[in-house]
UniProtKB/TrEMBL annotation:
It comes from the Bacteria. Coiled coil: none annotated. The lineage of its organism: Bacteria, Pseudomonadati, Pseudomonadota, Gammaproteobacteria, Pseudomonadales. GO terms for cellular component: plasma membrane. The keyword Transmembrane helix applies. This is Uncharacterized membrane protein YgdD, TMEM256/DUF423 family. The chain crosses the membrane at residues 44-61, 68-89, 101-119. It comes from Geopseudomonas sagittaria. Pfam families: DUF423.
Amino acid sequence: MSRLFVLLAALYGFTGVALGAFAAHGLRGRLSPEYLAVFHTGVLYQLVHALALLGVGALALHWRSRLLAAAGGLFAAGILLFSGSLYLLTLSSLRVGPVTPLGGVCLLAGWLCLGIAASRAQSRRH
């Protein structure tokens, strides 16, 4: 589980930086300021949650928890749904229904699962 979440964090981190650079250098002047802001929101949420996935991967080395695994899965799905739908909207003007809010709910649920997992974790200090 830990390795998967770290690999996903690296993938989302890499693509988040690449997409941010693409927006700054390739989309300025091609998108309206409003759409450029929407694209940047997708990049911000992707990068923040890539770090959250990295944290989940690190914690999974010490905690065995279904809630921690759920948090990682929800973060990964939330990034794809939330940020992915914003990229799709800005680059194609295609609206795909309530995908963005569903992605946001996944991200919120991921944080909730992470918090509950932390509150239930047993300390390894003696």
